[in-house]
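look at this fold:
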Amino acid sequence: MKLAVFGTGGAGGYFGGRLAQAGLDVAFIARGTHLDALRANGLRVDSLLGDFAVSPVTATDNPAEIGPVDFVLLGVKTWQVAVAAQALRPLLGPETAVVPLQNGVEAAGQVAVAIGREHVLGGLARILSFIAGPGHIRHAGTNPYLAFNELDNRPSPRVERLRQAAASAAGMTVEVPADIHAALWAKYLFVTPVGAVGAITRAPAGVFRQLPETRAVLEQAMREILAVAQARGIALTEAAVAEALTIVDGLPPHGTASMQRDILDGKPSELEAQSGAVVRLGAAAGVPVPVNTLIYQCLRPQDLRARGELVFPREA
């Protein structure tokens, strides 16, 4: 089995690294100093479940150098999905399946439009990880979890092959959900409020989950997402909110979500695909989402500034 990781960031680097550690044929697509370090020194991963390194690794910024693979783990940021879906075409063979790992609920559909639905699985990852330096990934919290299935939830040989391969790797839990869309929305219901409330409060999980005022905002944002999901026919119940809050309570006290880190660092963020999508999808479904709307509106100036689309005036 041959795999490619397109976007070797916190999630792609960790899961791709674990699969390579297990002996699978994994190629990494990266760029800049990160790519240079991968080529020179391989991939280094610091993990709560045991540090490891993979060296040498196949790493490139040109998918054509790799050619067709069996599976692609798509690990780019949400705003890069459309471009990445076109760029990964050299990796496609007749049976190749792309597994998007983005936060949000729209990536699989975007990739399907670009390369054909037959080449796409629904996928999601749960992990608190990031690029600590060139060629260096740090897993800082959450038990790594990888899930995927066909978009119509039917059993398929390729999903079973990937499940068996991923299950052979250490340091991750692998699952094929019976309903991949419900699983995607369950993650969305968790990760979007956590990143958004973390960004707007500028506080880590241990703070905003403890204060009654911010915990109430967090829970209400989750309930609004649940209402949007149910209006769209997604099979989620009230239990999804309780489960998400339980996950929040298990995060490291210093834990922060990727969207929060990007906004606080002045980098482009996934605001549009997370809070922005709640607003858009809620409007389309006729579901009011006032808490998510307020958070989105308050964070939007920071995201626009990071993208160079808005300039803040300087003090005289």
